[in-house]
Amino acid sequence: MKQLFCILALFVLVFSCEKKDRPPKPDNLISKDKMESVLYDMYIINAAKGVNRKLLEDKGIVPESYILNKHQIDSAQFAQSNAYYAFDPDLYKTMVEKVKARLEIDKKTFEDLEKKAGKEAKRRRDSISRINEKRRDSIKKALKKEVSN
């Protein structure tokens, strides 16, 4: 996630240094909402690359291409739109904050699911332990009964 943010920040710096005027609005400008979705997916896929790079390589998945195909955009369109939005730091910051908020919501959701799964697994283990304990007790009773006869 940090890597993508650094890349985007570098991208913003490069484009802000080259031109003093706002870049012209591209004909194929990605809408603000769609751009936020693309950035969100970029954050997710970069995190996945950090965790499961080998798995992605083995499956022949090129993360950036996957995202561009998913959103039906090309790299030039993304670059132009990103430069256009990045020229306005307040707007871009707002977009990135929305993406971060969405990531935080997802993180909380997954943590809650993980807790619930952990509780469910503990409940199952406890249930199995009780069943095994009853089975052991019944075997002990049967053995005592045989020994006493």
Cα distance spanning the termini: 72 Å
Quickly give the structural class. mainly alpha
State the shape: rod-shaped
The radius of gyration is: 27 Å
Count of separate structural domains: 1
Percent range for β-strand residues: under 5%
* Beta-strand segment tally: 0
Helical amount among residues, as a percent range? Answer: over 70%
Elements, N to C (H/E) = HHHHH
Overall pLDDT score: 82
Tally of helical segments: 5
Spans where pLDDT lies below 50 across 5 or more residues: none
- Biggest sheet character: none
Question: Describe it for me?
Answer:
With 149 residues, this protein is mainly alpha-helical. The protein has one domain (2-121). It is 84% helix and 0% strand. It contains five helices and no strands. It has helices at residues 2-18, 32-59, 63-70, 75-86, 89-148. The longest helix is centred in the C-terminal third of the chain and has 60 residues, at 89-148. The chain is rod-shaped. The model has no long low-confidence stretch (mean pLDDT 82).
How are the SSEs placed, and which strands pair?
Blueprint: H1 2-18, H2 32-59, H3 63-70, H4 75-86, H5 89-148
Helix pairs in contact: 2-3, 2-5
Key descriptive features of the protein:
mainly alpha; 84% helix; rod-shaped
Overview in brief:
The protein has 149 residues and is mostly helical. The protein is built from five helices and no strands.
